[in-house]
Amino acid sequence: MTSQQTPPVVTRFAPSPTGYLHIGGARTALFNWLYARGRSGKFLLRIEDTDRARSTPEATAAILEGMRWLGLDHDGEAISQAARADRHAEVAHEMLARGHAYKCFASQDEIAAFREAARAEGRSTLFQSPWRDADPADHPDAPFVIRLKAPRDGATVIADRVQGDVTIRNDQLDDMICLRSDGTPTYMLAVVVDDHDMGVTHVIRGDDHLNNAARQMLVYQAMDWDVPVWAHIPLIHGPDGKKLSKRHGALGVEEYRAMGYPATAMRNYLARLGWSHGDDEVFTDAQARDWFDLDGIGKGAARFDFKKLDNISGKHIAMTDEATLVSQVQDYLAAAGRPSLTEAECGALARALPAIKSGVKTLPQLLDKAHFILTSRPMVPDEKAAAALDDVSRRILKELTPHLQTASWVREELESVLNALAEAHDTKFGKLAAPLRAALAGRVATPSVFDMMLLLGREETVARLTDAAA
Prior knowledge:
By secondary structure, the protein is mainly alpha-helical. 48% of the residues lie in helices and 10% in strands.
């Protein structure tokens, strides 16, 4: 007797190309990606472009670029739902042949009249077609839709890995249209046919699709197909507990990229939106893939919190190696429409990163902190820096320069030289810090004076102090 092998996990992300990659869609894609990648399964991409009026190539490109930036690689080619319309129609006709669907010749006026009468009599307005059990011999030579025969009594139970068992009374289900009178398939049919043909084993999607699952299960049953594992995840809400919308701020993934959040931080933050692994807040991609499971997804809506995103982003910047961080900075500059760094600037930034990357939350903040090493002489101090370079400060800087030309270029020696100078002028080193920052960076908010001097080197440090003293 051979043991039955569990089929490999296959998940999918199926966005509609009518706009950017929404932050909620990005999280759905991430959950599907993590679940598949953590089980050596497949993660597939399907573009649900059946709404030809609203679907655009630009939106498809934006979705693909958003996924590329987030690092959510998919297996095989992206599938176009619209290109599979013939296959969807074929299944509708097969259900018709099996007796699980029927031709409905009811006009829009007849359906409207039925609903109006039902409302007046206090009955359910779900349309009950008179053609459901009609003899095919009585069919007119007229346009028709193909409707699926939904059960009229009993209940349909959705066994959901997140929501638990969800029961829907069958008298709440209509005989949904699968094929329109012009021969085009409906979304509800196309989704099921595509998921089956793609071999999808787990459907992980927003809980706004939960009711759809009950209707879609009828197609699986009519075709004797295996029903996938359902996992309907709660939507993302804003800080006020209401559904995430434009008034809460950025909605598209590309906006977060342009704000300078690293992709690694976005993956971490989105994974924590509605899913948890103990008390772990900050983790690597490898840990997320190992830990992610459907049982860790909560039933309640997650709230988007910029402070938490900033905190996670700062932790990721601090723990990222220099080469990767420089690459992330270049990506941010491209997304923000700013000039990229030269090879020399990349080298300078990489050298400075160990001293400057802690404490920053975003890549623009990192670049701001690195200003001293990315700028070149002659520097123009900003307003506060110019004010710090008064006549007294300039004289002290001029006095300092010869001492630095002979000092050993190590932190302890530089601290000794500067403290001795402060003592000679009967002041504390803190009083010298502002003019030194102004001279070295053209600003008064900078990294440590000693870090800057060590990174700039003797020659550049002395040159900047000489410029400022003059």
